[in-house]
């Protein structure tokens, strides 16, 4: 893509660095969606129990990070409760385990005491934070982040059976400095009051069905900008840096390519509060001349005032995939 400086995707729980893009994606002039900018907590129930670290379980045999436990003593293991039940009832010195390692089935007899010590290295859920990009009032769907969630311990996009996004509150900001990305410290306001379900964790973001009962965060729709309409110069972003309040901050578009654009933060209030782009800002809407351009997706690690964005027409192409 012609960029030599280090880029970091700015979602809290991801490791993805650079994104592929589809070509010749366009929206009709009648397409309007609601720009958001709210901080969200993301929860995804994994499709099984996964190992997060390499762990020795039998003499010289190691379970590897990313392995999933399928069965123990012939009993299916779907979540951590299943794991704890089997271990709690185990009487033998060895526990028979069926493991899936990158699609390859493996059977082992693991030391019972070693298996008991596995619990801190297991997970059946992945969590993170990011920014809600848009809600489509016509289709009842939403999009967020602008890039894929890659679980930081599994080092891969997690296989999940269900998930949801929740409104979160920013409690504290750790500022970005050159070479060290800052981040938001936030918490979900109400774990029972979800904004939407997660259907897709794709290259261009997470997508799903919006909770129609949740109307209090919605505003007026904006027309989606065609990539050819974007100009270098003044623009703005919608994002949250304190509490749950979505604020508008100024940026300057500095470079435009066919599928993406670069920008620099210019708002003195935002720069004073954050030092630059933060992890967790991924998905923040970008607006120019009253039209919805796209979403923040990446920051330049060594120059945190600078970032990159994804056009909304490209992001929405991933909604149905």
From TrEMBL:
Q: Where are the transmembrane segments?
A: none
Q: Which InterPro entries match?
A: PDZ_sf, Peptidase_S55
Which SUPFAM superfamilies does the UniProt entry name for this protein? PDZ domain-like (SSF50156)
Show where the Peptidase S55 domain sits.
99-321
Provide the protein name. SpoIVB peptidase S55 domain-containing protein
Q: Which organism is it from?
A: Sporosarcina thermotolerans
